[in-house]
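Lecture notes, continued. The same structure-token format from the folding unit now serves as the input rather than the output. Read the line below as a description of shape only.
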């Protein structure tokens, strides 16, 4: 399978071996790259711009033998999703050496992000609507009369049972919602896939709607529910 064939949560913060070929040449500053070192063991993270990167833990000459550099404390480098999108890859099973090297790195990369936003990145329901390059961007349906059109929304976190975000595209029609407006969306199932639609949006959210939204948030919070599911309370 290629990297593009996997869902985001199949490899995000996990481990994947990529047949990187010539890309391993980029790692020469950190490790001596042999001619047959065409495979790279990677994990993945999102940078401050939300772009998907694959940090390289080690390299090697085959799928099974890809451990050179794993004992080094620092990463050997990174590849952008655009570089590896069409490359062959296999999900790798984590071992203690991999976790020991990767966990501190991922923790450092995630420090700048809100905890609720980080949780949404682990939500497999959103894999069907994510942008491959910027996974925090998801396609969200905006309702216009009796029809619905999907537009890109950047996730900012959660608010009760809603996924919260900011619209990234200007709608083609004047529906009272504009680019940079805040959206509060819910999931639904279409053809066996999870999709999203905005229940409360932009200037369409009047005082009555805001009261209704706050009431929903309060009532679901009392039941221990949010967008992530059931929250256990002490």
């Amino acid at each position: 399978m290629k990297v593009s064939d996997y869902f985001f949560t199949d490899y995000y913060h996990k481990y994947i071996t990529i047949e990187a070929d010539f890309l391993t040449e980029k790692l020469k500053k950190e490790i001596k790259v042999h001619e047959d070192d065409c495979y790279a063991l990677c994990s993945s993270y999102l940078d401050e711009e939300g772009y998907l990167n694959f940090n390289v833990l080690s390299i090697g000459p085959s799928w099974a033998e890809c451990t050179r550099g794993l004992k080094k404390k620092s990463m050997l480098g990174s590849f952008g999703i655009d570089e590896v999108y069409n490359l062959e890859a296999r999900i790798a099973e984590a071992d203690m050496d991999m976790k020991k090297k990767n966990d501190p790195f991922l923790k450092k990369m995630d420090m700048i992000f809100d905890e609720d936003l980080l949780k949404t990145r682990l939500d497999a329901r959103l894999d069907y609507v994510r942008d491959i390059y910027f996974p925090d961007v998801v396609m969200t349906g905006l309702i216009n009369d009796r029809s619905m059109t999907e537009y890109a929304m950047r996730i900012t976190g959660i608010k009760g049972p809603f996924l919260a975000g900011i619209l990234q595209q200007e709608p083609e029609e004047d529906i009272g919602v504009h680019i940079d407006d805040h959206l509060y969306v819910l999931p639904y199932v279409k053809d066996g896939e999870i999709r999203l639609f905005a229940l409360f949006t932009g200037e369409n959210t009047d005082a009555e709607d805001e009261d209704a939204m706050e009431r929903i948030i309060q009532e679901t919070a009392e039941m221990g529910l949010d967008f992530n599911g059931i929250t256990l309370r002490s």
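Point for the exam: The first helix runs from residue 8 to 11.
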